[in-house]
## 1
Amino acid sequence: MGKNTNHAEATGNTVGTVGSVSAGWDHLGKRGDGPARNLLEVRNLRVSYGGIEAVRDISFDVPEHEIVTLIGANGAGKSSTLRSIVALEKPAGGSIRFDGNELTGMGTEQIVKNGITLVPEGRRVFVNLSVYENLRMGAYLRNDDLQSDLDWVYSLFPRLKERSWQAAGTLSGGEQQMLAIARALMSRPKMIMMDEPSLGLAPIIVQEVFDIIREINQMGMTILLVEQNANMALKAADLGYVMETGQITLSGAGMDLAQNPVVREAYLGKARG
Amino acid sequence: MDFWSKNLPYLLAGVSVGGQYALIAIGYTMVYGILRLINFAHGDIFMVAGLVTIYASTVMPLYLSIPLTILVTVILGMLIERVAYKPLRNSPRMSVMISAIGVSYLLQNLALYITGGLAQVYPTIPFISNTVTIGSATTKVVTILTPILMIVLVVLLIQLINHTKIGMAMRSVSTDFETSRLMGINVNRVISMTFIIGSFLAAVGSILYFTNYPSVIPTSGGMPGLKAFVAAVFGGIGSIPGAVIGAMLIGIVENLIKGAGWTTFSDAFTFVLLIIVLLFKPTGLFGEAATDKV
């Protein structure tokens, strides 16, 4: 536990330096600027695949500037939820409101234009494009000058700068995850969704990924995080939801859920008591 | 020296035909790169371009009928994708392939209906039909022009793919549709763009190719289409430089075989090459290895 506090402090320091590099990132506002409002509101969402309901009537909120996590076992419907928010799956019913706009019925490009990006499961960087080109693709919908944002993501991820001209396929798993996050940042979203960012990474890299998640959140970014690594996710999150077979069974502040005996037994591998 | 003077005409013809095959082969390889689809209708689009030039030049001067040919061919290519391939985007690949075969027969039969089965005389395009003498060879200007024009177009295309935003988007879409959508890329527009480029090059190729032939019939697209396809497979389908190299090789060897007096076997060479490639190096010269690092 003590180790973790140190990490948070170290991250806090980096934020200071990074914040000075990025000039234009005030558009998000910071947490605590007035009353928290819900950036994303999902109501009665249902998603099915060929008659099987993967998501059954779930409702949840993502307050602006917070980290919200959906945790649950494999197949609980977490990924389907994220994918339906960006219209990669067509919801069978329900409503998804983001920043005052109804997203259901919109195409993926339009939703991205509205300010949501998804860092997909398994990273999915464009392996045949260079690191730099991947970042350019992240900013595909923008026509303004990218230089200050490029400088900013390179300062967040110095290793990407070193490998700027390398094909993304030659990066290690951890570097690819960093690139996937950096690529998502390049679109200047209001909210980033991440699907299993720690999947298949070494523990030390997982720690780095979570440091980055906290860091970009401190800059005002709203984050919706799907994780099987419930321990890490709940420690980072302001708000958590537990999903089980397509339904939300528990919700609460991240720290409270981490202490909850049911959660501890089912997802944190710790015995009750 | 004697060998050279004897074979120079065939070598020149080979380079020229190779350039024409290359212009068709790029259409195959680019569409495959993005959709993983062999566009069997591509050779017939090439034939239709020939017919459009013929019919257009009966009612208007060539300086109008040639641009019109290019425009009509590009629209046709785009339309085929919209009508016959796009609705099958989420279907098994076999369905799209069968749809492509269907479009191929549809175009051939439409052409048969319109031409009445009669060979249509291809117009003589001035300048490129003029005769030039190079060393021991007497040939048409088009023979010299084809490889030059082909290389210019290929260089421009590679610049587009490597250095522009739409080119980057094409490369992204070719690796991952879904993630491309997440970047805000309109995948359908990128696919249309690919068909536009392929059809444009096929139209240019048809003008260069048919100038050497007296007429166009509904099956005129078959053989050059098939050879361009073999060229694309030989070069590694999906790779543009591969398609160009494959097409040049097929064009040159085919004509050298003719020069040696074995004209009967010149087509056989192409298909023996296909069998050898498929047996020993199915991914071709520059084909992507089938491994995906995740």
## 2
Amino acid sequence: MSVKMEYKKQVDAFCDAKHRITAAELLRLAEEKGAEDKTYIEEKGTVIDFTEKRNRRAAWKKVLSAACIAIVFSLVATTTALAATGKLGELFRKIFKDETTADLVEEGYFYEINQTATEGIFRVDLMAVTGDINTPKLVFEVYVDDENLTSCNDRICLSAYTLGEEQYENELDLYTTFDSWGVKDETIDNLYHVSFDGASAWISHGEPVVVSVREIRFEHVAQPYFVNLEYRFALPQGGLHPIIQEYYGGVRLPSGEGDYYLNYAEFGEYDSRCSFMFPYDGISLEGQYATPLGLEALLQMQWDSFETGLTLVVDGVEYGMCSEGKCTIYRDETGEAGPPGWYHGWVMFPAVNATAAEEIYLKQGENRLRIK
Amino acid sequence: MKITEAVFLEVFEKFKNTVYAVAFNYVRKADDAADLEQDVFLKLLRCETEFESEDHIKAWLIRVSINLCKNHLRDRSYLSDAPLSEEIAVAEEETPGDLFRFVLALPEKYRVPLHLFYYEDYSVRQIAEVTGLPEATVKIRLKRGREKLGKSLRKEDWF
């Protein structure tokens, strides 16, 4: 038996033995909890729905956040004009070994934030955001006031949320923090530089963004330091490099698993992405797929087969999908992204020069779909 | 797909071990893991998200489990990387198998990605998505975690 199989067997045996609660008990608990909430609400002489409760929670949190913002802004220092002096590009080229971002900085695609927050032994400056619309990179400087730590740790890791203000205030539990490692400055012993991959979904022009650093870890220290350092900004127009986005609105690409329709393609500085949509009508569910969740499983299996066989061909050079793992398909009920009720999925390829390319097409087996 | 009672019953049966195992991997205490499992499923029952697929629900459950575990550890200032408690080996009525125990003995940064890789069959990208780690970091942690696990298994004549 393989290690994987044996591990699954042991975990299942352990979990099965440990389970005490059942689905029925959870439903009862949820009902009781709902009743408790209702009683509380009635005692207070008002009726509020879930949305309003979230707003109440948000209002309470905003009071706290306002206090935090006041603290953060009182701590804002006029930090070194890192980007303006050209140091930002140098930082990406020499320290982060990231030529793509260094080039973008030198082309002027960055926005200086220069906010400082401190807690305990840490002073963490959010210096700037750069990159492209699909791959924003936040630049942090971390000062650590502890010689014992800095003397034996060349690398440091920040764990942080990057969210829209609404999501940060009301739905934090639904999201997770992201991690990025940084390195020690070549000359200043207690300074680390971190290039942090921000969440592109929330960093868009004009929208308020909250960055919240929650953990700081050192390379050779097992236990993380828990902090709560917040930064707020809104990205101005032109702060990040644009991407080339071409809409196709549903050009058919047949495959062995059925027809998929190209919705749009995006060509960024770091990767290329192709978004497809497909209908599901007329599929009869049998055997293992004849369950409420069976349709999703079947469509996902067909999609997996489709995406792994897809290649992007640019002027004769073939590129396979660049990310390991699968894209999870999703169903668009609103019809905002395509026909209502259709499923969507995307495939990621390496970055290519779409502007300079003479010919670009997608290949699936014998089928080709020219997109430029 | 909304979480109706029928969907919940199916989802609970299918993913109860997924949630409990993730929680136990983080906190390594049976009672705490059971409490966290309960919290996760109660959140699911009250969740108004329109789920796109079964995988979406599973990813949501894992992500929320991880978040609640992190909050739990943060609140308790609990050392998730402390040496494996004797409680697991002695006081628990049902003890983990040797292989599970070897994984539990690894530092958190290795054992959680390893667990998702071995138990959930998650790819590097999926692990990166639910843990919020860059893919390169996940790859390194899986590699080093497997190396450390291999050493433990060789010592115990697994290989």
